[in-house]
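Summary for the steering committee. One of the milestones for this cycle was to obtain a three-dimensional model of the protein with adenosine-5'-diphosphate bound, which we needed before selecting residues for the alanine scan. The sequence and ligand used are listed below.
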Amino acid sequence: MALQITDLVKRYETGTEALRGVSLEIEAGEFFGLLGPNGAGKSTLIHCTTGLAQPTSGVVHVFGHDAIEHYAEARLAVGLAPQELNLDWFLTLEETLDYHGGYFGMPKRDRKERVAELLEAFSLSAKKDDRTRTLSGGMKRRLILARALMHRPRLLILDEPTAGVDVELRLELWRYVERINAEGTTILLTTHYLEEAERLCDRIAFINDGQIVAQGTSPELAAEYGVASLEDAYLELVGRNELSRARIGDVAP
Ligand code: ADP
């Protein structure tokens, strides 16, 4: 099991209960999608998985390692590609990857090989000595993916990897993450793009108001809500089924 979350509760000091008893299992090798409206608890779930937030109660295991009790082992197993482009703009691409590897305790020679391998895989080799701030948007996204993979995590978390990117770059990023998954890396993806989840994910969970309300394949979710598509199932979830394409014909002119 890549990720096993059991009865996870997270109450912030403000009193907000962001997660209200979440249980979730992701098998090794799966491409898993987590969908839900803003404020549903997606980031909190990711933060509890990567040790950035302490659960109020419940357990998170990453490849068998307790995310709190055995933080170091659990953290080593996870690569996180955050939504924001949180690169250090004064580092070169090579330094960006090398420092990340150092942070995760990789020996120098291994880092060197891994940096070269990733720069090649993400078509960034020619830019290795450039500073990150000089990169195009697409290259920055690719570098963030490469950085997340630097320490060879078995679980890659992609937090809205294509938010605000153009169509070409979205397609390009899909190709990369499909390949990473095909090569054996388990992936947890959060996205607001339903077609993205549909194309990439083996299974999808809907999270709403701190609870997992449904999960399954895209057809299973549609069937569960008695609708024709993942998009319609999502609209049922958020209570906006009047927006369904299947209902457009119903709308009075
Ligand atoms: P999502 O990622 O699905 O948009 P979040 O996990 O960011 O959802 O937020 C879930 C709930 O927890 C929201 O009500 C949000 O306002 C609240 N929340 C998130 N982070 C914090 C925090 N650090 N302190 C207090 N409340 C928070």
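Key point for the committee: Residues 82 and 159 are 5 Å apart (CA to CA).
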